[in-house]
Model the fold of this input.
Amino acid sequence: MRVDADRLRFEVEARDGAARAGLLHTAHGPVETPAFIPLATKGTVRGLESAEVAGLGYELVLGNTYHLFVSPGPERIAAAGGLHAFMGWEGPLITDSGGFQVFSLSHGGVAYEVKGSGRQGGEHGSMVSIAEEGVRFRSYRDGAELFISPEVSMQVQAALGSDIALVFDECTAYHADRDYTARSMERTHRWLRRCLDWHRREGPERQAVFGIVQGGVHEELRRESAQAVSEAGVDGIAIGGTLGRDKEEMAGVLEMTVPRLPEEAPRHLLGIGEVDDLVAGIGLGLDLFDCAVPTRLARHGVALVPDPARRFRIDLRKSGREGNRAPLVEGCPCPACRNHDRDYLSYLSRAEELTAVRLLCLHNLTYMRRLVAGARRAIAAGAFDSYRGGILAGASPFA
Amino acid sequence: MRVDADRLRFEVEARDGAARAGLLHTAHGPVETPAFIPLATKGTVRGLESAEVAGLGYELVLGNTYHLFVSPGPERIAAAGGLHAFMGWEGPLITDSGGFQVFSLSHGGVAYEVKGSGRQGGEHGSMVSIAEEGVRFRSYRDGAELFISPEVSMQVQAALGSDIALVFDECTAYHADRDYTARSMERTHRWLRRCLDWHRREGPERQAVFGIVQGGVHEELRRESAQAVSEAGVDGIAIGGTLGRDKEEMAGVLEMTVPRLPEEAPRHLLGIGEVDDLVAGIGLGLDLFDCAVPTRLARHGVALVPDPARRFRIDLRKSGREGNRAPLVEGCPCPACRNHDRDYLSYLSRAEELTAVRLLCLHNLTYMRRLVAGARRAIAAGAFDSYRGGILAGASPFA
Done:
């Protein structure tokens, strides 16, 4: 670990078992943890203005290096004064490295088997080659061949000017075998060192860098990766790659990984953000979570509700909501719940009206925000176990 | 004309030439005129919450009887307490009669030739029959055969509970010949009497009814229709049907029609809302304008700007905006102009991000609102000619 308070400072304010409540001080201000991080994939949280995202209580959003690299390109964003200025977001920003997208979009989903190198992409694929130097792939926009290496990823993230950059990694899939996962992890560790070397020489002084632990579902690999990343001199640690085939296996992978991370580092679980996973992850001592699910669900007419039997979801496009005068969630302060009932929201969603997407997006993000805020308060009060138990049993975060 | 202050009262506060500035008092509050009326086609202004529409300064929105009849149906809206309660809109509401949609959707657009009756719809068509009794057509949702007559239209609008209902009419197309247009107009006048008869017997007491002048581009027909509608005992008068093939012919039709309408009636020009048409219409003494254009343009990446040479539009999806740091319109208080530049808005529009649709929708509606508010002030100050001249020459409504 490196410590550089000017770049990033992480303060653990309270602990409750393994769970922590903290403050992450970035170049663009503080972030209360545990935090859920909405995705501003292409330079906007879909359908919302930056000011609205801040208005929901979010302090940190995540931009996607891969998408922004393909379009509009780092030069145009740098010319605008960086991603903060480009998208009109004044708070802290984290950017992923592009690794996840290069691999998952090239192979048709992260669960798709990633085995050989030099493999042509299939129907969804655009991978040209994976080599020690970096990754060649085709742009999903115009088919142009593009190249990302650890250095290119850091260079792009430097141009974006995010507060926190993630190192370039290979995101291994569940179906990759142990041998491939091990070799890929070792390359990811070499890429980690190249990212840090480039960043030390040429990265923005106030940009922090998080390393990424890989190793699939294999305990020795996760352990080895946790150690390698912890010793590499990063500002924080993310957990990437496959976490298994189900929630049980995910819990196992996290339990074998998180305790091996240094206490003083902020810990980011990449791409996870279902309600139950979030409270489970907080309980294990994770601090940051980013996930497309809440906003993606909104685009498909699905709202978050305190109903564990239905995976905390209600699909408003299904019939049977006619005449239902109840709000989505009693006590939720979002405009969908404050101003409308399930009858209308269900009608709007089935009619595929933009207003439905927007209202559900506001609701789902309000829900996630309240969920982590509640967890934070519970940790400070030494009552996290009971908070987690309540949420998993169907208690409302707005109760 | 009938006068019933409890239902509707129209107060002309100032005149400047033929232009009027007024107040339309409805059961749900007053509307300053001239007014632009955003469309809440299916029970929402696309992408915006009701509170936001009100926040933009709009007092009156228009719901579409045809769409709401097809889905979710008048029973469900009545069960919610009417359209106001269903969509969470507390201000005045106007509903069209369904006539325009039945005819234009069935014939693939209002410009499509509408000639015979009993004609099967074509590729876009779903018309089954047009007869004295009413119109049979197929639902665009599930192909079910539906029937709208003057009585059904008024019954549906009664269930919606709008402040202003429009009578059921046949909307004749430009390519209909004089003979068809005349026969159609006469039937529309018979339908008008049936609408009013039904409404007198069974309509909501506080719902006003506007008649619709038809007659195509033919002076004698427009004159005859203006007289028939004026004498029928309506609360206000709308101008419908084809207004010609271009703006010049539209001006001719309006010039032959508007002066024949009673001074004391509010006058609504149906479906017209381009910047130049609006100031021209206000100059001729029209008070209300509804139009899908500002919100539809937003969905296609087009923003309103004070540029008469480009039809007051800028297409942000066209290339060449990269690095342009100017706002869409200097001085515009909308979030698109206040927080973003053309470079970012163009990127977002080309990326087809929902945020772009929303930002442009807010911009275009802010633009239209400011345009009519400026016209209203100019009329009160006796300076409407110079205001109209300025707008047509490229003056900004935000100047």
Q: What stands out?
A: The first strand of chain A starts at residue 9 and ends at 16. The interface with chain B takes residues 42-51, 71-72, 76, 79-80, 86-88, 322-323, 325, 335, 339-341, 343-344, 347-348, 350-351, 353-355, 357-359 of chain A (CB under 8 Å). Chain A is about 40% helix and 15% strand. Residues 14 and 380 of chain A are 5 Å apart (CA to CA).
